[in-house]
Fold these 4 entries.
Entry 1:
Amino acid sequence: MGKQRRGRGIKKTPNWRGTCRLCGRTGVKLLWEKVIGTEKVKCCKICANQR
């Protein structure tokens, strides 16, 4: 069974790779969303799992 955040499925998502707005890492997958205030921000896996 395939995973949601790797392979063919993520390449169909526009702007799936770029710079994380929270930590500034470049060339990472931006598939996770985090709520900052009232705004949803796309971020990397490491920032999404931080509390």
Entry 2:
Amino acid sequence: MFNILTLNKIAAVGTSRLGDNYSYGDDVQNPDAVLVRSASMHEMEFGDNLLAIARAGAGTNNIPKDKCTEQGIVVFNTPGANANAVKELVVAGMLLASRKITEGIEWEKTTLKGNGDAVGKMVEKGKSQFVGPELKGKTLGVIGLGAIGILVANCAVDLGMDVIGFDPFMSVPNALKLEPAVKLMKSAEDVMTACDYLTIHVPLLPDTKDMVDADMIAKMKDGVRILNFSRDGLVNSTAVLEAVKSGKVAKYVTDFATDDILGEENIICMPHLGASTPESEDNCAVMACDQVKEYLENGNIINSVNFPALSVPKSGDVRFCVMHKNIPELLKKVLSEVKGNVENMSSKTRGDYAYTIIDVAGGDAANAEAMAAVEGVIRVRAI
């Protein structure tokens, strides 16, 4: 029996896939795995039996990944599961950044209400103050061409926009999904200085924090329109507020409200709605639960953010799942502790860490303790 702790509400369409061998809920003690959405785990203490944490979403800033890696806890996310939901909101954000839709609606509610038959004439007289440009023919810059960025870029092409993009880590499968009309640039700065609209789809890391700051904004086109539906901290709020007030930035639309920009003219803040669709929540729950189940039952890792992906069919009598440092000669020492015949061994590395699966015929699960004692080994499971 596996025990799964849910720190947030996880859609039943996902948890129902776990099966009878699982107990799950928000009051589970000593969990084997944790399912989480937005709850912060940085202050949590992890028990020795915790094997996995699955984030039902793409970002994992709420999870202490370094701590998890050191303790041999696999952290999963669900890339692409909410991509369409975010893409649709980004498109809505581009329209809101262009046409003064929210301003016009607010004007009607606060100014026109109560004027009876005169409302129609007042609308015609006052609507000119809400004029805004069309998207067609404008240049959209996309920083980050992952699951979401690709969908946004391709949709913008369909809307008649000229699209330029940059992603130093774009995979071959993602490149094949990108519309040929999207022009790839040599750097993020090349994108940001050439676009009329800018949308960012990268994780928040030390080298991406404040990637849009006062210096970068100064290099952009006058009247640029900036969208941030990725992570708070990618755009420096102080810099963008000053740029909006000066007119350098025509509009800033974000899914991450901060006190300093709320209520400011030409800034639209949404309450983190990117993945807030029933379809997205279902997709994330299904993917997160499937990944946890596959790891707990078979040791296969899919979509981990701290250990390498490794999935192999199970053979032999015992499967040893070894998390270890990526150092020379370590596996030789681990294999010397194996009793039985090694039928299959697969290993992958990710930076300073590695993950190895060893299937053994005639093996003894008790060997896991001896394997774990090898210097540089973090954790060993026997399945």
Entry 3:
Amino acid sequence: MPQVAITGLGFVTSIGNEQVTVLDNLRELRHGIDYFPDFAGADSPVKLAGTVKDFSVNSCDPEDWTYPDAYRVRREVLRGLAPHGLFAYCAMQQAIEDAGLSEEEVSNLDTGIFTASAGSAKMLHSHLERMNRHGVNRCSPLGIVNSIVGTLTFNLASAYHIKGASAGFVSACASSGHALGYAWDEITLGRQKRMFVVGGEDGNRESILPFAGMRALSQCKDPEIASRPFDKDRDGFVGTGGSVVMVLEDEELARKRGATIYARMVGWGQASDGYNVAISHPDGDGLANAMRRAAACAKVSLKDINYINAHAPSTPIGDLSEIRALKQTFNGDRPAISSTKALTGHGLSLASIMEAAFTVLGLRHNFMPGSAHIMSLDPEATGLRIIKETEDKGPALAMSNSSGFGGANVSLIFQHI
């Protein structure tokens, strides 16, 4: 089967809007969590978010938005985008340039795109409210395509003239992990030569604050410690938005065209908890099965995994479930483990690809990012090698985990080249 190389990355995140800044902040454990104006009202017990800088997308009219001067978005494209669609459009430009792809290499039958997002609750609400107040004929003609689940696929496939496979994935916080896994399948099965994989979320009041009703969000007011996976006093996750794009490519093709290869994706696994609509299995059985299946798919031994970017969102239940999954899976082996959500916050559908991209950066630049903000390690994590500081030694094999509602679990494995 073809080997799958990572040849391009694009970032619009709370810790940076281009690779150099993201890499520096990731190494130095500088977070992107701030007080969020959308949460300033007395009705919100939550005050913090991982904020995307240099973009202003609060208006429901895309023509009011502002974004960095480095990007130019045609008006007819902009009008079809949600806020995270703009983030993704810009990250896509970065990834194409980073991979050194020509227009012909982007737009052909052998290049496809898979995306992951929850759609835009804010844009959808605005359109429905307008319809109910002013009548059906006053609805925006692009109101559907810039708001519903699938908006990333519709807009990016059209704007970038994608002619290969295209689809969107919806499995909550495992969504972009599924997109990466099935993109890997497309290439290894010979169906496509190249795949863009995109994750994105608005990261605004409408996409984050409803989780407060589940008691899932941190109510900590200190940006320095609010997101603290694996800490015994963690009290919930901090939400974030943005977009990350990864280019997966048939390695032989990539080498022929002289592309820079960050790392190789060697396999993936998935499994479901079959337990609860919102709560992870208490012993982490589904995630443990996903990790075992990923290793089997990649034809590697679990003892050879050197680093794990954990899902660990900083929730009491979620972190504990993963701790138990890691213990039962690795059974005495001690890979380095960290959760970069301490720096970015939790990106929901975006989380998996964002953390996979961080893992790939570590493989390329020979480091493992620490798990920041741990003041007192959860006693249940005793025996795991959770690293609190960045280690300047890169892994040979790395795993990235994600878990979502309904007990969806995805594990991805990447290899240093």
Entry 4:
Amino acid sequence: MKTKTGTGKYESLLERCKSLDPVPTAVAHPCEASALSGAIEAGELGLIQPILVGPAAKIAEVAKAAGVDLGKTEIIDAAHSHASAAKAVELVRQGRAELLMKGSLHTDELLGAVVARETGLRTGRRLSHVFIMDVPTYHKVLVITDAAINIAPTLEDKVDICQNAIDLCVSLGVEKPKVAILAAVETVNSKMSATLDAAALCKMAERGQITGGILDGPLAFDNAISAEAAKTKKIQSPVAGDPDILLAPDLEAGNILAKQLIFLANADSAGLVLGARVPIILTSRADSVRSRIASCAVAVLAAYARRTKA
């Protein structure tokens, strides 16, 4: 995943997908131009095989208005967004789809169908969100978690959030992902719960409760990203200056961090929800085409990794 600074990071992911067959993907309620075109473009690139789930007449109307050629794309009629979410999840449960993709419905509506106790896609893991970021000033793809689902995660929640992100990075080709557990300071302080969680997570990794990654924390953001900053503070760390994953202390910190990188550092961001039976592609109307396609590429690699494990 390492490339020249600021260039080609997402393209290297797309390159990894070239030899893979398209993955059947249930697209829930693609009733808006960007949501529909994103799914169709990913299909044309051979990343996914979209199955559009929603009001068939509305999808056709949106496609016509946006100049999107649906070709022979399968459309499964569903009366409204709630029904679209339920039907898309059902397609995954039936094995007809290996990925789930958000269309133009609200994220909460889609995730409500995913976590439904009897009909959803729950696993033993907690759901968590990852931003997979191409930051021009950083030397490789950077994963930030959790910035969208878990508002104030407990230590146990953070175990799953961390493991989900590690497993994803492994599926993207990182042999031993490095995890920087962020806090405001790099020392353990009983008055700052994020530092206690960081210390506990590192010990849990030592004891095999978190596997596959190299963890260090607490680390302030400067010490996590800059080896020079860590050296100045005399921090000995296998992670400082080279993390693959930044584990935020809570949703607000993660969300602010990700959006700062997007709007101040011109970063591109792909988004996935992990921890369900299949990866869930989360895109928004504000996403660039490059980001939407990257989200699909990352999901495809995760889906193939899941096949290998099964």
